[in-house]
Model the fold of this input.
Amino acid sequence: MMATPRVPWQSLAFLALLSGCGGGEEDPAPAPTPTSRDEVEATVERVIQSGTAGDTRFSDVAQIFTSKCILCHYPSNASGLDLTHPLDPATGLVNRPTRWPATQAKLLVDPANPLNSFLLDKLIRKNLVPELDGNAMPWLIPSLSPDRIGAIRQWISDGALDDDRFRSTVAPIFGDGVSLGASGGNCAYCHNPNSLFEPDLTHPFDPDVGIVNVPDVGGHLRVAPGAPDESGLVLRIEGNPAGGASMPFHPEPLTAEEIDQVTSWVVAGAPDN
Done:
């Protein structure tokens, strides 16, 4: 079983309404149509034909989860899927139903039944319909927009105060740690009290786990009141290498080899080896 690391500072599609043709009324969008699973079927067939399924060990797959997945799928995260413990019957992958009822694959991982394993759809398919299947994984979090970066800069320039302006402009950018906001807005989805990743942006003024006057591992204050250019938060959201890894963090997609390893593990029965 994997150890649960703690990594410092590592940070829905909505149904659209179509305009109506007359009278200014709006017609609801047509129901989305499921798309082909050819990519999954081709990958599974290639793995079966290669005869390597029995060679993939769970420890290899666990390392993939650690490097690409646990940024969002940590203990007590909003999705209910904890990939620091992927074999846990309550919060892991194996034999658990997907939350997307319209999908053709009904379990997250169905041992030895890869075509009923929704994990493979999420990792392999490039034609997922967000309303039916959710987003492809790893989810590439969009960068903060210039106006949101500007709002954070102005808040820091004004002294990084816990006031009405902060609560109306900056707190919504950080988010609540439960739902993913539009336009790349929910930093707290990764940075919350239950997360593996400091700081806790649901409590930005906490002197221990927050950001205001709290040092980060790069030697900067996370937020230096009155000095946005000296604040690690600003350096990171602006992509300045002086601040360390850019935020929001964008996990890289799985490589073809990693996808084959995960597929091989499922084909082999998702063993705990």
Summary: The beta strands are 7-8, 17-19, 26-28, 197-198. The longest helix spans residues 38-50. The chain has eight helices and four strands.
